[in-house]
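Quick one:
INPUT:
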């Protein structure tokens, strides 16, 4: 074996590898990089023939080359390795903290070189290096492609880290399992509780069903008794009437006798005839006192009225109704809708809240009703009071002008509906028959009928000529809050607290159709003056528009949460006004859908109505005032 000369840099690398024993992986890589950078050096094997020592010519070796004397190679390496081991042991005993380096696994060629040097296998090392660098120089093997030798310590660290991660995961899984177990127990307890609650509710339901069945049977047993009591009530009313007539006759007899005795005491002689119960047998020449005379006149008037009532026939509902004149008005002739109303005047008319405001059909006159039992007629625009009506014994709820404008109908909490002559200002007729407060009233277009709705869940149609109730409308299951005749027809609209609207045929008293959609009590409902549209509002401020012909809802507008107390159309039917419980007057543009607000009421707004030309708007509030907007 002959060793070729190696450059000094390669030789230094080799010395470092021999001196340090097992080098760090980073040093091995630096060595490989240096060798790769300056060129590949390898040992060449040469066969030496035996020649005489005198004839052999030795090559000259430069002084700067490093050489090891033959025979001392193994001893020097062994001494050096021993010194290195002693140094390492010393360092470990001193526990010197060396600067930490990132441990990088060694490459395979460095590992082999270090191993062969450590084991003293120099000839094997030379063969390996010669073949290895020859392969690198030829390009058969790349320097970095062989890979690294796995480090046991690194593997141990990786395994420990993996073990720690697995332990952490196991801990988390245990915690999750414990939490899931607790949740399961909690859910099981809740399930048992709800199951028990469900069973209890079923038991209560069955108990209520049984109670309802019992109540129905109990109620059915009362019906015959109620019928008998009703008949007895009518009988007692008749007896009461007869008793009152007998009492009046007795009072008349006593008054006549007292007057006769008084005249006899004064000294005047009168021929006193025998007084009989039957006044049809009285003589014409019998002298009468002033009391007898007034009673006789009153009796004659009552007889005349009774005869008139007996001779008066019931009014007939018109068959051929005239067309609604508002339908013939062309859209081109209509003035543009107005929304820019401003508060103009405030009229303080009532001590208590205003419940209704109505406009005269032909004159600039306004009527307001209040909870102070009064109704007042105002002149517009000055607001001067022209007439005050007194007669109801409880609050007034609604009022309505006769189509001719010479009469007024009012409804009240005293369960009556009164008709008033506006020329004289006195009550000409009182309708009694409702069992509770009357909420609303309206005139038929022919002027012969008045309809009213009441808290007793019924509505009634009254004949103004025969002065009696023509029909009672049954069907609602709660208070009937509003009633309205469709213009120039026999159709009647009612709105109830049972959240429904009903359409009735006034001639037969039958409900033709019901409209459902409101979720709360309906406070007011009205027909549009033009077209076939119905507007309604409820106790939560929701206003709905309905198609009267298709009997379907068109749109729903939520203006709540304050209740909508009343709705009203203007004369064109394009603007809808709503009086709200928060004091705001909402104006809805039916064409564009925009909502305008009028702010001016200090408290709740109860009623709203337009003038016939739409230029003025009137509203009444709970503060007893009527406000005009223009």
């Amino acid at each position: 074996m002959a060793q070729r000369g190696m450059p000094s840099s390669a030789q230094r690398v080799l010395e470092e590898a021999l001196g340090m024993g097992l080098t760090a992986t980073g040093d091995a890589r630096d060595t490989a990089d240096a060798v790769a950078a300056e060129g590949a050096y390898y040992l060449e094997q040469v066969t030496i023939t035996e020649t005489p020592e005198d004839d052999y010519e030795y090559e000259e070796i430069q002084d700067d080359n490093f050489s090891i004397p033959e025979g001392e190679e193994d001893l020097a390496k062994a001494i050096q390795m021993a010194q290195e081991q002693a140094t390492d042991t010393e360092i470990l005993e001193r526990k010197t903290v060396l600067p930490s380096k990132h441990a990088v696994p060694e490459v395979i060629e460095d590992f082999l070189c270090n191993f062969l040097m450590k084991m003293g296998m120099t000839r094997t090392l030379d063969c390996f290096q010669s073949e290895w660098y020859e392969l690198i120089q030829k390009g058969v093997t790349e320097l970095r492609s062989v890979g690294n030798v796995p480090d046991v310590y690194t593997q141990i660290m990786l395994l420990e880290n993996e073990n720690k991660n697995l332990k952490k995961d196991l801990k988390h899984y245990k915690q999750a399992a414990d939490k899931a177990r607790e949740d399961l127990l909690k859910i099981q307890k809740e399930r048992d509780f709800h199951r028990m609650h469900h069973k209890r509710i079923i038991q209560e339901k069955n108990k209520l069903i049984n109670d309802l069945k019992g109540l129905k049977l109990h109620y059915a047993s009362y019906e015959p008794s109620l019928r008998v009591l009703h008949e007895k009530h009518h009988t007692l009313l008749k007896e009461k009437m007869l008793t009152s007539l007998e009492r009046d006759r007795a009072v008349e007899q006593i008054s006549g006798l007292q007057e006769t005795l008084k005249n006899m005491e004064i000294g005047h002689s009168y021929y006193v005839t025998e007084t009989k119960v039957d006044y049809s047998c009285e003589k014409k020449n019998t002298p009468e006192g002033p009391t007898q005379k007034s009673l006789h006149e009153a009796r004659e008037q009552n007889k005349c009225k009774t005869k008139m009532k007996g001779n008066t026939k019931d009014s007939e509902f018109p068959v051929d109704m005239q067309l609604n004149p508002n339908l013939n008005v062309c859209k081109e002739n209509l003035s543009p809708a107005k929304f820019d109303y401003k508060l103009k005047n405030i009229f303080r008319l009532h001590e208590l809240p205003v419940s209704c405001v109505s406009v005269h059909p032909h004159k600039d006159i306004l009527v307001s009703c209040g909870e102070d039992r009064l109704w007042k007629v105002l002149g517009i625009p000055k607001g001067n009071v022209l007439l005050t009506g007194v007669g109801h014994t409880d609050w007034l709820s609604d009022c309505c002008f006769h189509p001719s404008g010479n009469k007024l109908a009012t409804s009240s909490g005293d369960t009556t509906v009164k008709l008033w002559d506006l020329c004289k200002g006195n009550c000409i007729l009182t309708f009694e028959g409702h069992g509770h407060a009357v909420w609303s009233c309206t005139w038929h277009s022919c002027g012969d009928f008045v309809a009213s709705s009441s808290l007793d869940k019924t509505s009634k149609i009254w004949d103004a000529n025969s002065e009696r109730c023509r029909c009672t409308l049954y069907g609602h299951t709660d208070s009937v809050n509003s009633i309205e005749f469709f213009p120039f027809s026999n159709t009647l609209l009612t709105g109830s607290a049972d959240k429904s609207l009903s359409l009735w045929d006034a001639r037969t008293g039958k409900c033709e159709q019901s409209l459902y959609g409101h979720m709360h009590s309906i406070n007011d409902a009205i027909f549009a003056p033009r077209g076939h549209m119905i507007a309604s509002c409820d106790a939560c401020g929701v206003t709905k528009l309905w198609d009267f012909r298709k009997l379907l809802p068109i749109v729903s507008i939520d203006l709540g949460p304050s209740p909508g107390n009343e709705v009203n159309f203007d004369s064109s039917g394009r603007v809808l006004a709503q009086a709200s419980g928060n004091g705001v007057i909402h104006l809805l543009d039916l064409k564009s859908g925009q909502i305008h607000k009028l702010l001016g009421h200090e408290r709740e707004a109860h009623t709203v109505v337009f003038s016939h030309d739409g230029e003025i708007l009137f509203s009444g509030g709970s503060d007893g005032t009527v406000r005009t907007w223009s």
